[in-house]
Amino acid sequence: MHRKLKIFVKKFDHSWFYVRPLCELQLFASLDAYDIRHHTRLFPSLVSLTLHRKKMSVKRKCTDGSSVPKMKTKQYLERYIDFGFMEGLDSLRPECVICGENLANQSLKPCKLKRHQETKHPETIGESREYFKSKKQLALSRRSTDIRKAFEKAGTEDLHRATEASFDCSLLIAKAKKPHNIGEQLIKPALLKIVERMCGPQAADKVKTVPLSDNTVKDRIDKMAADCQNQLHEKLRNANFAIQLDETTTVSDEAVLIVYVQYIDGEDLKQDILMSTNLSTTTTGQDIFLAVDSYLSSNNLPYENLVACCTDGAAAMMGENKGFNSRLKEKVPGCVIFHCMIHRQALASKKLSEDLSNTLSTVVKVVNFIKARPTNKRLFAQLCEDEAHQTLLLHTEVRWLSRGQVLVRFMELQEKIKEFLQDHNRHLCEQLTDAFWIKTAYLADTFALYNETNKRMQGPESNVMQCKDALDAFSRKLDYRVQKMSNGELHHFPLLLKQSAGTVCASLSTEFTRHLNLLREEIKSRFADISEYLSKEAWVVDPYTFTLKDVEYLGCEDELCDLQADSVAKKYLQENGFQKFWIVKGHAVAPRLAKHAVRRVILPFSTTYLSETAFSDLVTIKTKARNRLDVHQDFRLAVTTITPDIASLVKGMQVQGSHD
After folding, report:
1. What phi, psi does 36 have (nearest 5°)?
2. For 186-239, what is each residue's pLDDT tens digit?
3. Which residues sit opposite 245 in a β-bridge?
4. Which residues contact 15 (CB under 8 A, 6 or more apart)?
5. Would you say residue 112 lies in a domain?
6. Overall domain count for the chain
7. For site-directed labelling of 269, which of 465, 515, 530, 605 has its Cα 20 to 30 A away?
8. 74 within a domain of the structure (yes/no)
9. What is the Cα–Cα distance from 12 to 647, expressed in whole angstroms?
10. Pairing of strands 241-249, 306-311
11. Residue 286: which region, alpha, beta or left (left: phi > 0; alpha: psi -120 to 50)?
12. Residue 156 half-sphere exposure toward CB, CA atoms < 13 A
């Protein structure tokens, strides 16, 4: 290989010049310095140097066209081993077998090699050639090891990066709830095309090393899910926690139990998936309790840390003798049991008079007649082309907001419904009298109010105080509407006002008033225990407005005095809310009050909202096409709020690139 370099020449004395390259050379073509003998004239400061792999010459371009005599590259001789030198990696410079130092090519002279031996390694003087040959073998072995390690390090680093990228991509697949084979079927091919187009073939070759096969993605998901689970367990072993649970049936007819946990991590209140498992046979309270008990015991999660549990009102959960909650109370007597407040409100809303119940049944019949028959559905959609909506909504008892949404949509499309039934079902059309539409409008307005309250209680961070406030507001709104309905004022019933033209007959007004009172009493009855429980703990929301008598049952009067005198803590409460206040600030000023507030009010779930929404994620993951999938690891990674420690996972495994 030829390389022309510009060199700088410095004169050190009258007979010698030293020339050094100004740019960096490759390892095998590099020299430390060159000695150029001066014979006849001064060298100019700039000369041209031509390097050869085995043979090198230096030519000086002088003003008169003459040149400097050539300086030949010295060759290594086998006898130089007697001075402790072997051939270097670049075949140009000698390498000491003792210290590994590389000398310049011009040092390949017995006198210079011997000088190095006498100066640096005098103890080797007089040693035999066999001695130096043995040292040479050791030096070659070290050199080979160093080179191999360098290559292995570079290769291992690339494999580690490829493996980490594989974990990153698998995490995205799990979060998106997609099939495992999407990695090799779509993501990797698309990425290769993009990278090759944008960055070139060499960058695409690196992408090819990222393993994303179906089995690899599953393995990555399993490892990350297990890591997230272990992280959660470590936190729960040292903290109080509350749970909520519910069970459902998948597309493959498997009964799945889902349990969520709420706990305090540092200064934050967090929720996460605790467990999901199949119930192999029945779904009784005993079966559910055994599943939860087995999980807590096998993972060393102490029962004494469990402070509250929230379930729906099913017999398997709330049964007095064999329900899950009764079994749990036997195990943890101090555990607070909550019946989902959204579920309670849904049960209360089912209280209807016979006449209103018949009206709702007629609405369901009409909707089913149109929706259940594909031909009717298409014809009705064509009829509603000019409307905001082209279809009705099916009523589903298990959906919290279903009833209100169905009725509102039904009222919006009433003219199209009449027109359609006149042509396709006259018998059903005859049931849609003026009184029917007025009753339907009233039900739509009432259940729209119910839905508004229901939405206020939903959300992953909803707490018992927030739900109680929403229900108190709902009860007051019902009281107000009872008064207005009794006076014949319909301004708070917009659909009813429009349908009745502002006037409702006395009989219907009485029926509506009776229903509102019934709904109000049902709410009061179903939430009596919650109201009693929370009225005692009301000081938790704002301890600065309560008296010492309100905390006498805890024996914490002195702590309340200290707290109420702390103006800094009061400001923190006003700025951050009572949950953050008791978690962060309360423990320093009033530790016993803070502990009680956290265990009895802040940690308990008020609803089973998280478990209910998790069922939607479960359905998305376990489709009919994937009904044989063991869903639990994918499900955990999809819904968890914990970030897996990918770096540690990669460090603890033997990395291997893709074989594609």
Report:
1. -115, 120
2. 999 999 999 999 999 888 888 888 999 999 999 999 999 999 999 999 999 999
3. 259
4. 37, 38
5. no
6. 4
7. 530
8. no
9. 56
10. parallel
11. alpha
12. 10
